[in-house]
Structures are given as structure tokens and as C-alpha cells.
Request: fold
Amino acid sequence: MPRSSHPNLVFIFADQLRAQSLGYAGDPNARTPFLDRFASESLNFVNATSNCPICTPYRACLLSGQYPLTHGLFMNDLCLPDNGHSLGQTLKKGGYQTAWIGKWHLDGHGRTSPIPPERRQGFDYWKTLECTHDYNRSHYYEGDSVELKAWPGYDAYAQTDDAVAYIRRHNSDTPFALFLSFGTPHDPYDTAPEDLRRLFPPDKLTLRGNVPPHLEALAWKEYSGYYAHILAIDQCMKKIDAAISACGLAENTILVFTSDHGDMLESHGCSPRASKSPRKQLPYEESVLVPFLLRYPARFPPPSSPRRVAAPMAAPDIMPMLLELCGLGVPEVVEGVNVLKSPEQTGVLIASYAPFADTRVALGGRPYRGLRTPRYTFVRDLNGPWMLFDRQTDPWQINNVVGWMQYANIQAELDAELTRILRAQNDPFERPEDLLRRYSYSVNNSGEIPFSCKTGSCLG
Reply:
């Protein structure tokens, strides 16, 4: 098979980066010059959705191509089973060299424990830690060593340098698939590089239109560090793109930039620090809508203006799309669809299955199932219809129109489609305690899987 049929793949994703907080998306606070240019050269999936907006479930959807009730990881700090057909394993079987650098959060054996080869889902080059949010004292394991090593300085910079080195020494006769998983811009926000934080003075920042007045001071402070982390990521992306170009690989490399889920950052009054409500795992746009840019010049020559892909896309849809772009077959166990070939999805499922930790029921979290279409967000909780937003007329999601007469037909249609999706996924939408019992999961008194609080933050 010709080399061009198996392009290289560089997949880069941030942790807790919402789609709205980038320059090309219209955010006046953002300083993202590289990503703004990159967006102009890429397919821009404007309805990319984190269907279960929390770290471990997203990553499991990405690597399995399945939905949470199939792969079983609907909470943080669980271990992804080896079914032999993960994204990394399929790429490896297809002749790819595979690499993972950065955060993993799919092992469920402790956040600083080494991860043996049999639980790495087909990734060979390995500089990874299960999870940390201490970005200036960040650690990793390399290869099969059980020695805990330290990234020098700010970990996103060090991980980027390692990714650049990997690209530069790559044997171009064999395609490679490199996954770089940043921990930022996930909180804590004040750990962003100080020189970048100075570029975002709080009193010069513009808050989103759904941040309530009593949380404005906190939001300004947190925005400052959040946008500094994002600028650092932009600089990292620029270095990686430069390395790809310098090696003559740009034409035949798929370069993806995305995120696992968003961040409420005080929108709708959601703030763990102020109101004990979650930063994510909610059906609002700040939580579920993520950036997704894909550049592949050999297949999609850069247009004169950004190419918007409007088809709704969820995390399980990423695997089949990437495999087919890489010239490989899609395993039968995959539930997602390649939205470039099957754009007819009317919407995607969004869900919170078993609220835990900072999102547990006692702190205002609730299980839900919802449908997000390019225009509407419809959500049920265990008591029935909970939310309906017409985002075209109400982009800040201020007016919940559930039960409004003028939206009765729309609500009925969305409700019926959600019912169809849940039946197709064998999802009875049961109470969290029943769901945990069905999967034989145990949680502690704080609602966490026991491994999640042994070290560091429990926030995912």
C-alpha cells in the first residue's frame, strides 16, 4: 500500500479547555495566534461534544470508540478493559509506531502508580502518569521503568519538547501515531507561567454573559490563569507544528487539536470554590462543547477560509474517523460513526451517569441524559424533562423553555429522539446507586472510587 495511504497522526488534547475560550471562536480574552491560524487551515468541527464531560469517561470513549455504558468507565479513576481493539492497538496492528506522552487517567490503580505494558492499550513509546495537576512539579514513568521521573519546569513545555524530539527522530518509512495529553488548562489556574499570567490582568478581561454578579470577582481571577494556560498550549502547538514542517511531514500528517471537556468557570453560578457546584459534568455549553480542529493537507487542502463541519460529533466518533483517514479498518466493537462519511446524526447524547466527588448529588449534581443538536439542548433528569435551550435565540442558555407552549413540538421531537438513542444503547437511565451496583463499583463516603484520593486532587 502506498505510504500516502497511511498518514502520520499527531493527536493533541488539552484538559478542561472549553470551545468558547479561543481566539478563532471569538473570545476577546484569548491570545491564541497559532491556533487561530491553524483553524484557518483545518476542518473545524463546530459541534464537537464531550458526551460525558469528565476526564476518564472521555478518554475511554476516545480509545474504545464506545459509549460509557459499554466500556463501563462512566466515572473517574476506573481502569479501561483490554478488548484488543482499542485505538492504539488498532493503529499498532496496522503498522503504526505508537506513542503516548502526558496524562493517561485510564488505569484506575492509583494516580501515581506505574502502568504496566498490558494496560497501555497498544502504546509503545511511553512517558506518562495516570493523573496530576501539579504542573510545575509533574512526574511520569518512562517505558517499562518503575522509577518516578520529573518533567523539568512547567510540564506542558517539557512534554512538548519530548514530542518534538519524538517527531524529529521518527523513521519516515513507518507511520507513527503520537498522542500528547496535556493536564492544562485544568485548575489550579494560578500555576500557569508567571510571564503569561501578567498578560491577562483580571480587570481587563471580559466575562461570559452568564456569570452572575456575585461571582464576577472570582471569575476575573480564575480567567487570568486559565487564559495564561491556554496561551502556553498555543505556544506548544506552534512548536509541534514547526517540527512537523521541518521534518517534511506536514503534507502527510493528520494533526488534531481538541479537549476532553470544558470548564464552567462561574458560568451559571457554577464554581466549586464559591457555590460547591461542579466545573464540568453539566449539560451547559461551557462544559460539553470542545474545540476540534483537524488538518490533513494531503486529503483536505487548506481552504482560503475555515471549513466548518456542522455534523454533531461525540467522543466515540473520533476513533472511526481517524482510523478511516489512516487507511485502516474500524473494529466491529466500535459504536461511534465517522461523521465525515455519515453526517446525518441529528444530535449526540450528553450524559452524567453517577455524580461523584465535586459533582455528587449532595452538592447539587444530578444524573441526566440529554440530546445536543446544532441548535437545541434537551435534558432529562430522573424526574423527567429538566432543560430545553434554544441556543440560536439564547446563546447564553439563560431561558430554560421546558414546558413552554411555543416549544412543545420541538420538545416532543427531541424527547422521542433521546428515547430512541437510549434504547439503542440499552440505557435504562437508572438511579446512580443502581448503576453502581450493576457494574459492581464501590465508592467511598465522598462519592469517589477509592483510588482517586490517595494522592493529589480528586477533581479529575
DSSP finds eleven helices and 16 strands in the chain. Residues 452-459 have pLDDT under 50 and may be disordered.
